[in-house]
# Entry
Amino acid sequence: MKKIGVFTSGGDAPGMNAAIRAVVRTCFYNNIEPYGIYEGYKGLIAGEIYLLTSKDVGNVIQRGGTFLKSARCKEFHTKKGRQQAYDNIKKHELDGIVAIGGDGTFTGANIFNREFNIPFVGLPGTIDNDLFGTDYTIGYDTALNTVIEAVDKIRDTANSHNRLFLVEVMGRDAGFIALRSGIAVGAEAILIPETQTYINELVAKLESGTKNHKNSMIVIVAEGDDAGGAYEIAEQVKQKCPNYDARVTVLGHIQRGGSPSALDRVLASRLGNAAVDALLANKTNLMIGVVNNQISYTPFSKAIKHHQKLNTDLLDLAEILSY
Amino acid sequence: MKKIGVFTSGGDAPGMNAAIRAVVRTCFYNNIEPYGIYEGYKGLIAGEIYLLTSKDVGNVIQRGGTFLKSARCKEFHTKKGRQQAYDNIKKHELDGIVAIGGDGTFTGANIFNREFNIPFVGLPGTIDNDLFGTDYTIGYDTALNTVIEAVDKIRDTANSHNRLFLVEVMGRDAGFIALRSGIAVGAEAILIPETQTYINELVAKLESGTKNHKNSMIVIVAEGDDAGGAYEIAEQVKQKCPNYDARVTVLGHIQRGGSPSALDRVLASRLGNAAVDALLANKTNLMIGVVNNQISYTPFSKAIKHHQKLNTDLLDLAEILSY
Amino acid sequence: MKKIGVFTSGGDAPGMNAAIRAVVRTCFYNNIEPYGIYEGYKGLIAGEIYLLTSKDVGNVIQRGGTFLKSARCKEFHTKKGRQQAYDNIKKHELDGIVAIGGDGTFTGANIFNREFNIPFVGLPGTIDNDLFGTDYTIGYDTALNTVIEAVDKIRDTANSHNRLFLVEVMGRDAGFIALRSGIAVGAEAILIPETQTYINELVAKLESGTKNHKNSMIVIVAEGDDAGGAYEIAEQVKQKCPNYDARVTVLGHIQRGGSPSALDRVLASRLGNAAVDALLANKTNLMIGVVNNQISYTPFSKAIKHHQKLNTDLLDLAEILSY
Amino acid sequence: MKKIGVFTSGGDAPGMNAAIRAVVRTCFYNNIEPYGIYEGYKGLIAGEIYLLTSKDVGNVIQRGGTFLKSARCKEFHTKKGRQQAYDNIKKHELDGIVAIGGDGTFTGANIFNREFNIPFVGLPGTIDNDLFGTDYTIGYDTALNTVIEAVDKIRDTANSHNRLFLVEVMGRDAGFIALRSGIAVGAEAILIPETQTYINELVAKLESGTKNHKNSMIVIVAEGDDAGGAYEIAEQVKQKCPNYDARVTVLGHIQRGGSPSALDRVLASRLGNAAVDALLANKTNLMIGVVNNQISYTPFSKAIKHHQKLNTDLLDLAEILSY
# Structure
């Protein structure tokens, strides 16, 4: 291995810069030249590939987003696009590639690898934590902390007015952010796609909270909940309890940004380092994660087929603690 | 003066607790008994009035919200309600009252004062900064800092994807939050109720930004802008430029909460102290603010009639700096 | 079990309130009366034991410190003191006790348990993460985040002046905080008690950094490093390189405070819940931790005899990434 | 005016980047070429002078420190050094220069201006707020917020242990940071260079606090207090009250860094803009500040002769509120 390329793809996540930095520094350590590929697969096709220096990764570990940028790329779905990507890889003599992203990123890598046999390793970079093969994805812990800081602020105003707030957090298909942040803010209820939401049950819980003279109530709603987003659910609650002063806040894109947390920086550093080690050891076509504090390897084919399962103990815990 | 009551009313604002604390501590200093009235005018009518101790205001200066709580109160709009409020004031022998809130709070105080001649002073407690007679309202600086922290996070993700973001901030009638936060985040455009919004102009500005290879663009929209909220404006922009990847985030109620900033804590402390001093000096039926770093007094009648004017220099500045 | 007592002891740690809350709420769920014991063993001896209500644990999950307070207690080292503690437990009819703290706390509990056979369970509450039997202690993750936020600020000024900074973090006997925070801030060197510090080696590393035109250099020093604290080490460096503009910052007690991180809140919630469950299941005289994401139980005798071992992979990682 | 140079000098302060950005953007607006001079006077002498582009100031408004860096420069104290600086200014055809810094920066500019008649304007960039001719210096508000966040954390642990903490903040010659942050954290006492510190008085205040069952006590000490730094004062307190559990924290360099606050970003933007306007209007050899919300101009000779006076009302306020 003399040259390794690295890119970020899909939605950005805090800690991606830390992962890129770890890839680059580990390359230097092993006398490998690291190349940055801009905007993911798009840059691979367009040939936006540049040698990275020590300076490029100085002072980036604490920055949110990704300095290599990210973009969607329809052309990579075509054979022609992938051929161009291959040509660029050959032109720049890249011996292996580290792809930081999510499901879609690995699906692309898997197809590409089958067609052109370029050594790829993937790192789980997404705030959603829904990837199979790792306990934590890069960005998840930061997103959780962003959510709880925001909800702590909302709790201030909820308390001052004895109000009910429905706070919508990210999670189109999975309730990871909602569940852990819900426990962490002491939410009165947590609504997630993985479990069926019954409005009657929710209302009963809220009524019981009102009876217990709770100052305020917070319901965390994953955007992909089966009963709808926070606005829809607020409507349904109001229909049953017209006199509720229910407010809605959709946290939105602030969840993707911000300086990465300690956990995410250490995780990203470990994974970026392990990615280069894996390429050097000929472990390829797989995603690298952390399971039980150990580096673990999951073939792309398996990583994209399965989904991380929600810890159902935490669901029970949320129930008990809101009691 | 032997007994002074204090309450918070209207929307809560960070620093209200610091103001209550300053009222209470200044009372102690002057051998006056401070009484907390819960939930604003509602508590005045319901008789929710309790002697406050040193412990009640220990460790609250850094807390968002208001521990005396706040609520809307329709009964105070009726003569009967106000009579009850008066009876409670007499019953508790309150010699003066400090009301912390906004326009509506002072309007109520003004009517009540005319009818029952109870000495009232008002403190400007609102994140909107739209009150006449003070350079800063309690909570405004904290709200600004909350907004810029949120937009800094959004900038991370906007940069990573070269995206346009429309961020809606509070300000139904006034652009104070939008204007200053817009300058502070380096927004490409700031849309406020005080100036007419032309979508063509906005689009031209964005196109010019695109030509200058700006990584990302942020437009700050006051919720009460004449062209609509952020969602409506995003729609109008997309109609003219269908290929824009424009995203919307509505910051919502996080702007009301959070630990108050240094400026808000000092401001609230000064005003709470000045409120008791004013009552002792027989200065009543007025709002106390800070103008040019000096304590200033504005009769309620004047405070509720006029509005704070936007600094138009800042509008020009925003224009120049987004150049 | 009808009544359970809970206390915090030793140095306070962010998340202790979340743990107390979880104990209390889980008690309610199981129809058990929870009693708060103030200031740890001191309150047990003094009889400062009070029934806790839902309100006592409302709105505390986000607060640093411990509302049950903590204190050192020499009397508990005497048989007479422990007898008094026992009498109070009997007087209040406590059927079991949850002790949140560190090594010293568990040592006391272990002796007491042997003497009086009162069911105790311990929860690991310390920012130092040095307890055997758990991957994370309550407060560790928050402390890490506090450190990295502080060092990020120091990096700003270090970069502006091309300076070397030695930052001392907590860790009298262990380098857990130093090691992870050092990786997370991209420190040029990390000095910990577990490994021998050679000043010559450190100087060589710094010189090589200077040659690589690094803008600034950060060295993280655990307070208990074998070569001394940050001030001593700075002196030794300056003796070898008199022209270095080396600055020292000792982060100190800010590391103990602050709103707990998402991880600490969830961890504390899980452990508080598990503590009551353990008492109900007659699992006692042990510390409850989390190992590989699973609740784990370690007898006090073992917990206090062993120490958590530092992950040496992280040491190597730190070395490689500062390359 | 066709070309304007800008540099930062002296200790760095949050908001310096925002000021540079405003200078650069205002130059563009006026068709002027902005040149960045690196490391202050040092770069002026060494000829480290480069044309700045829009990209250089993109995404810097939120960054602490100064991307133009800062350094001490002894050569500028010599005639020879200043001659070299002049030659470089002529070589790069700079028509005017914006110097961002403090007292020392303006003293240098004043001498240089007298000798070589180069148009200079100064902007007040220092966290200390001790400059005559402006209500706020760039960086002061951010430093205050950094201090209060740190002390809020310390208050957590102080409360948990009923402890006394002495917290040392920056201010070698002036108590601005100590006074306002002291009020903002509700300090029990504030010790500053401007007023004489009597240890007996301090001890009396602390004893009275202890009698009033205060949970914890915080004393803010400006580093340049006449009675010594926080460690010295702690010693003196302990000599009089040997049984006090007094702890010391020196906040140190974290006070210089961090993302600038909203106030500092707006202030820096206004001042950077006004600096270019002043040069264009031939107003030179002066410092630009903000007094009573209006841009104000103070000749260097006056700015360096006088010192900003402490608001003594705030001293009284601190006294009353700690009552």
Summary: Chain D has a mean pLDDT of 95. The longest helix of chain D spans residues 140-161.
